[in-house]
Write a structure and sequence with these properties.
Layout (H helix, E strand, L loop, with lengths): L1 H13 L7 H4 L7 H6 L3 E6 L8 E5 L2 E7 L5 E5 L13 E3 L2 E3 L6 E2 L5 E3 L17 E2 L1 E4 L2 E5 L12 E2 H4 L4 E4 L3 E3 L3 H5 L6 H5 L5 H4 L2 H4 L8 E6 L3 E9 L5 E10 L3 E4 L2 H4 L5 H7 L3 E9 L5 E9 L6 H10 L22 H9 L17 H18 L16 E2 L5 E5 L12 E2 L9
Parallel strand pairs: 12-21
Antiparallel strand pairs: 1-11, 2-3, 3-4, 4-9, 5-6, 6-7, 7-8, 10-11, 13-20, 14-20, 15-16, 15-23, 16-17, 17-18, 17-22, 18-19, 19-20
């Protein structure tokens, strides 16, 4: 912990002469600009239904940690390696009110306090001097969040994320997904709606029929990018079925790393287009992206359905299993990810996972990349704000502790005048947003 404090102090000193760059966004370890920014938020580190009666090793923001629940139901997040001689607590025993190291039996409670040292003299007070690395954790709606920033004894409130607290009759927490590439490649992908019409034209987005072939490869929707108090919203529109109406499909990106998609039931679940026009989307699909390090991340997904269809998620799961790549692969094609066309998640993996790190790869950006450019500026500003001691976008203040944290993503048909930025509270709209990216 002392070394981390020195890193942060050095970082603060460097701030006087050096600003944050795009290359900084890819790096999340202790003492890095992006890493220190991330540590101002609560980040998802596990799910309650996947936390069993054994310790669970987890790497978060470049730190090796271990997650466990003691016999009394309290959850702890400790440094993985015992401060005695470095053995992994992943193999420890949950007993006697804490987690016991398998090597010499040192016992730690969820706060990192050392309770026992079996090999030390019985009258020794040594264990009272040992405090292991620990982070505060909270459970919310099936997800486990940790706060790894400053003032751990008085962290900001954990936001009341809508799909975790304001639930319909059907909801689910999906199994955690793990990916072997940089977190920001995945996150900023949602600020690039053009890829939906191109990359995913062989999969669900290209197969839907609503909204005059809304995601058509040859007739793409208009793209608008609106800065929000939580991050940015992507607004895609096409002329609607009646005068002065429009089809709309929105996605939200909330800092530090949340993506909310509203068209799941029409892309994956193949819902009836007529229902979309009449009722709009009834499903919230939130993805919480947690960097493990610069080359890996975890994806925690919460789904909340308020529609009338029974067994919605069972149907969704069955349909997703049918989304298999459609390519014929010759025997000489030894490329790692072949085949991939026809499966949205694999299409994303092929492209995002082969980009390399932002700031290290070469890029030539065009007009269709304006959402990407805008969003990167929003993230950079948030990092600058955090490093200057301010409260960045997405961090909830104590005065907002009891408020519902909702992302206003809409999918369906609406009056066309609603696209005006003056209709969106706390919004800044891209001045070129009404241009098509065809």
């Amino acid at each position: 912990m002392l070394e981390q404090g020195i890193l942060v102090a050095k970082l603060g000193a460097k701030r006087k002469t050096k600003s944050v760059t795009l290359a900084d966004i890819a790096h999340v370890g202790p003492g890095t600009p992006c890493g220190e920014w991330f540590r101002r938020y609560w980040v998802a580190v596990g799910t309650t239904h996947e936390l069993y009666d054994i310790p669970q090793a987890v790497k978060v923001l470049g730190e090796d940690l271990v997650l466990f629940r003691d016999e009394f139901g309290k959850i702890g997040l400790l440094g993985e390696h015992c401060p005695h001689r470095g053995a992994s607590l992943e193999y420890g025993d949950i007993e006697d009110g804490g987690l016991r190291c398998p090597y010499h039996g040192w016992l730690f409670d969820v706060s990192g306090r050392c309770l026992e040292m079996p090999a030390e003299p019985k009258d020794s007070k040594f264990c009272e001097k040992v405090k292991h690395l620990s982070y505060p954790v909270r459970e919310l709606g099936g997800l486990i969040f940790a706060y790894m920033g400053p003032k751990k004894e008085d962290p900001p409130p954990l936001p009341n994320y809508a799909p975790l607290v304001d639930r319909g009759s059907q909801w689910q927490i999906e199994p955690v997904r793990h990916a072997d590439y940089n977190w920001f490649n995945f996150f900023e992908n949602s600020a690039d709606p053009a890829h939906v019409c191109i990359l995913h034209r062989h999969a669900g987005y290209g197969q839907q029929s609503w909204g005059n072939q809304f995601f058509s490869y040859t007739e793409m929707p208009h793209f608008e990018f609106v800065e929000m108090n939580y991050g940015m919203k992507v607004v895609m529109t096409k002329p609607g079925p009646e005068p002065e109406t429009e089809f709309v499909d929105e996605m939200s990106l909330a800092l530090p790393s949340i993506v909310q998609v509203g068209d799941t039931e029409f892309v994956h679940a193949k819902a009836d287009a007529a229902a979309l026009i009449k009722e709009g989307s009834q499903c919230e699909h939130w993805m919480f992206v947690t960097p493990s390090d610069d080359e890996h991340f975890m994806l925690f997904t919460a789904d909340n359905y308020k529609g009338r269809e029974a067994n919605f998620f069972e149907k969704l799961k069955a349909l997703r299993m049918k989304e298999i790549p459609v390519q014929d692969v010759p025997p000489y094609d030894k490329r790692r990810y072949m085949p991939y066309k026809g499966n949205i998640r694999k299409e994303d993996l092929v492209t995002q996972g082969t980009q390399g790190l932002l700031g290290e790869r070469s890029e030539q950006l065009g007009v269709s990349d304006r959402g990407l450019i805008k969003f990167r500026k929003i993230v950079l500003q948030a990092i600058e704000t955090a490093l200057d001691g301010g409260r960045p976008k997405g961090v909830v203040g104590k005065e907002q502790a009891n408020e519902l944290f909702r992302l206003d993503t809409q999918v369906g048909v609406r009056a066309s005048e609603q696209t005006s930025s003056r209709k969106v509270p706390n919004a800044k709209t891209d001045s070129s947003s009404r241009r098509s990216s065809k």
